[in-house]
Design goal:
It is found in: Membrane. Its main location: membrane. The chain has 362 residues and is mainly alpha-helical. The chain folds into two domains: 140 residues, no CATH class; 184 residues, no CATH class. It has twelve helices and four strands, in the order H-H-H-H-H-E-E-H-H-H-H-H-H-E-E-H. Strand 3 and strand 4 form a beta hairpin. Helix 9 packs antiparallel against helix 10. It starts with a helix and ends with a helix. The model has no long low-confidence stretch (mean pLDDT 77).
Length: 362
């Protein structure tokens, strides 16, 4: 019993000292919790009950983690900084549920029906109305996309705030250690970011839903290209830090690597590029016989084969672009590495020559 209390006390102390580690821990717990909740979630599919029911899943867990964070950090320390830090897990929960989309779609649904999987677009669900209408199916899939855009925007805003805080203060020992490691080894930093981004994309692709609406497809897909790339660039830039002109320029170049890594990952996947290129309306579903590829199946059946061929060609185009960016990035990285080694050798030779000259003078 004493050992358990000591372990709990150590954990609470670590969370108090390091906001970053506590937010990461809460984020992981909340992500796992949402994956359990989504299995059991069932929208009532009642025009009156849907908004109220879905809002519980947005508000209740967010309030609970906010209160828990306040209690862990100490209720007596009611400064603005502590309250802001306590809000981070709550915002993380909102980001997670917006990324999933089903809660937002349920809240927006203003018709009655039966809650079931969207045929060909698993694992997305919707309220299938009693009087079946394609318009309702298109609306539901549009709301999935809308929810994920809100998620990306919230994620971007919170990361900008975090980056500003990291720049303004360096009290967090764990953060300082990570920053030092990243500053001294760009390869380690890029490798870590690459693994994280790859895992993140695998999670995002499960929830991604192209709105299949001409005019919106490009905008929605662009958010998935730009927002994560911008976030990792800012985080890397702040963590590596810059002192003056040359160091800042080098830092900028190294910070671009994770952003380009994200672009490579999404281009190799293909669904985001295909969504951006799609200029017709339809229903987002798996391509029969070519899973897990998805496309916007048009409502106009007469042009079905033509649009299908275009979509599959865009998947190929996206992957070609992904490999091209990967090749260019690898070549530039190799050139940078060689130049750095050459400069280091030259500096060493100059130092040795200076030492020899000092010996001759003596």
């Amino acid at each position: 019993m004493a050992a358990q209390k000591q372990w709990l006390s150590t954990l609470l102390t670590e969370i108090k000292k390091s906001p970053l580690s506590s937010n990461l821990a809460f984020g992981l717990v909340l992500f796992c919790f949402e994956k359990i909740v989504e299995v059991e979630f069932a929208c009532p599919c009642s025009a009156n009950l849907n908004p109220l029911f879905a809002s519980l899943f947005f508000v209740v867990p967010a309030v609970i983690v906010f209160i828990l964070m306040l209690m862990i950090k100490g209720c007596c320390k009611m400064s603005a900084e502590y309250i802001c830090d306590s809000f981070v897990p709550s915002i993380t929960w909102l980001i997670i549920v917006f990324l999933d989309g089903r809660y937002y779609v349920c809240a927006r649904t203003n018709w009655s029906g039966r809650y079931k999987i969207i045929e060909g677009a698993e694992p997305q669900r919707w309220c299938k109305p009693h009087n079946m209408s394609e318009e309702y199916a298109d609306l539901s899939q549009g709301w999935y996309a809308e929810s994920q855009v809100r998620n990306n925007l919230m994620f971007l805003i919170t990361q900008i705030i975090d980056v500003v805080k990291m720049t303004m203060k360096g009290k967090d020992k764990w953060t300082a250690t990570v920053k030092e490691k990243f500053k001294n080894s760009p390869f380690t930093a890029n490798f870590c970011f690459g693994i994280i981004l790859y895992c993140f994309e695998k999670i995002v692709k499960i929830e991604f839903a192209c709105p299949c609406a001409d005019g919106w497809n490009l905008r929605i897909a662009a958010v998935f290209f730009v927002a994560p790339a911008l976030i990792v660039f800012m985080i890397m830039f702040v963590m590596r830090g810059c002192r003056c002109g040359v160091s800042c320029c080098s830092n900028f170049n190294n910070s671009l690597v994770p952003a380009l890594t994200w672009l490579i990952i999404v281009l190799l996947d293909g669904r985001y590029y295909t969504c951006a290129r799609t200029n017709w309306s339809g229903k987002y579903e798996a391509i029969e016989g070519a899973e897990p590829h998805r496309w916007c199946k048009p409502t106009n059946i007469s042009q079905l084969n033509q649009y299908l061929s275009k979509s599959q060609r865009w998947y190929s185009e996206s992957q070609v672009f992904g490999f091209m960016v990967l090749f260019v990035l690898t070549v530039l990285y190799c050139i940078s590495w060689c130049c750095r080694d050459t400069n280091a050798t030259e500096e060493k030779e100059v130092k040795e020559f200076d030492i020899e000259m000092e010996g001759v003078d003596l």
